Amino acid sequence: MPEMSRVDLTPAAAGLIRRLRAAHGPLMFHQSGGCCDGSAPMCYPEGEFRTGSSDVLLASLTVEGVDEPVTFWMSASQFERWRHTHLTVDVVPGRGSGFSLEAPEGVRFLIRSRLLTDAERAALDG
């Protein structure tokens, strides 16, 4: 049985991650919960965004065709509000932040969320 994760990827997001990985090397996501583009997941070269005690590692995502896991971080204050949700990273047409690696592609990552089931919450928090 696959390990429970708070974060998943749509096939479209996985495909974009493969292209970005080929162009930029290992990747990471960070979601700050700030205003405007800060509420969207931002994709960076791994280690370019400095994480610290104010951030929570939600997942190390396995993407077929990518050698290393893609980490997904969230600010601790944002996680407190989202801790009861399952997140799915998707990609849609449009322009996101100029700081996120997908910006020149004419698409942007976004989060789709749903509440965790009781069983998922117990498995993740247990």
TrEMBL record:
<protein>
    <submittedName>
        <fullName>UDP-glucose 4-epimerase</fullName>
    </submittedName>
</protein>
<dbReference type="InterPro" id="IPR008497">
    <property type="entry name" value="DUF779"/>
</dbReference>
<dbReference type="Pfam" id="PF05610">
    <property type="entry name" value="DUF779"/>
</dbReference>
